[in-house]
Structure formats: C-alpha cells, structure tokens
Amino acid sequence: MPFRSDDLVDDIMRSAPYTIPVFLAFRMACVGCPIATFHTVDDACREHGIDREKFLAALCDCVPA
C-alpha cells in the first residue's frame, strides 16, 4: 500500500493499524489526537520536525508481505 504525503494521518492509522508503531517510533503522538483527522502526513511531519521522506519510507517498510 503506497502512502503519500497528502494522506490524512487518521485515515492511515484506521486503514492500516500496523502503521501505528511507526508513528510512535518517530515520537508522533498522533494516535488518539483529534487533529489527526485533519492533518496530512506532510502537516504532521512539519509539526513534529520529522523528515517526510524518511517517515514515508518507514510507513512503506512496515507493510506486511
């Protein structure tokens, strides 16, 4: 499943719950955050000072085979 920078954080976590540990590993407290329903990956990475490409790569790497 390809993840994009304009995907909503909440949509990713709901449709692919196996991504939640990635959010937590990057110290993103998006799990349970009401703003996650409005924030894109790009917004969240900018807000948390995280390299977007590294984060997207980690999300893609966690997809079960």
UniProtKB/TrEMBL annotation:
SUPFAM superfamilies: SP0561-like. InterPro entries: CHP03980_redox-disulphide (IPR023883), DUF1858 (IPR015077), ScdA-like_N_sf (IPR038062). It comes from the Bacteria. Residues 6-55 form the DUF1858 domain. This is DUF1858 domain-containing protein.
